[in-house]
Amino acid sequence: MSASDNRRFTIDSLWCLLITLIVLAPSQQLGSLAAADWFQFLGPQRNGVSPEAGLLTSWPAAGPKRVWQVAGGGGMSGLAISDGSLYTLVQRDGKQWALALDTATGKTRWQAAVSSAFKNQMGDGPRATPLVSDGKVYVFTGEGILSALSAKDGSVVWSNNTVVEHKGKVADYGMASSPLIVGDLVIVTVGAPKATVAAYHRQTGKLAWTAGQQTTAGYSSAALLQLADNRQVVVFAGGVALGLEPKTGKQLWSYPYVTDYDCNIATPLAHQGNLFLSSGENHGSVMLAVKPSAAGFQVTEKWTSHGAASVMRNEWQTSILLDGYFYGFDNVGSAGPVTHLTCVEAATGKRMWREIRFGKGNLIAADGKLFITTMKGELVVVQATPTQYKELGRAVVMDRSRQTPSLSQGHLFLRDGKNIICLDVRKP
To answer: What digits encode the pLDDT tens for the residues 212-228?
Structure first.
């Protein structure tokens, strides 16, 4: 190894160690997870950003090398990657199934039925993405059953029907909260009259606390964010955003955010201690400052961009925050067909560029690039720069899909309503 290679190895090793500490610290202990594991919805830090580098810079016309493709099933659950296994939820043969696949071959390691089939006008099957921690896989079904399964064989450790338990009702378009782990708790949004949010002890499934009242669940997944020098669980429910104390569920603040059909879906994001929320249905975006006050915490608006002239209206996709800029999908109208890919300055809400009529899709980021999947089944790779839209490659790689891609060990994992796919995106 040359001196320059040795320096690069040292820097890369320190970077991986730093990312691991950042990822594990908020949850206190999440087990032996490599920095490149995509063990939950939206990846290691639940923001859609991977620390991986050394990925392709030029793209063949047919797309990256396909390592494997296997049959999956219906549903909109994403893919969690941990310790050489891929976990997801699918619907087939009249049931919702948790699947574990070998990431190298796509071979099924186990499958476990977690509920009967879930039917819905906006698409059948489960919505939430599994979370993997300490030898368990936490799954949330379309009707709101939260279960802990053994990552080794899929056997049930515990299971709770959260909607029935809290006397609520299933969200109009299905329960979609991907589980969040904080310390020894697993947290989901329920939307029951006296339990907007519920936290369970992750080892036993026993109820730890509930928070929030009289608001629907919406379709967003909670996040653990650093706001006002405090770690807070931020829940973007059907008509309100809530800041909660992680251990007790104590409500620290609330901010009304009402959208048509209670369609708050994107995950909250933090930027320099502030909070970013965005919704479709022609609603828009807001950047909030959350600061301590005599009464607890005060929420004020740093900038807003709402209505038909909004710069960012995330429909079901969470924007990506990189180097002070949001990259995301701006959906025009009420669930309309017109969607622009847009870059917005986080500090000001200023639009930097937009690719008109890019189309609906989803995205993650790594190595200075945006990896975007579209409803047409395309994989589009875009340079993440605020100066201009710069496309690096585009190819049809699957059928119609809404799910976010997952990235681990230089491989991109995708799914549609039929198949699960692994692509090699490493630089030769």
So the answer is: 999 999 999 999 999 98
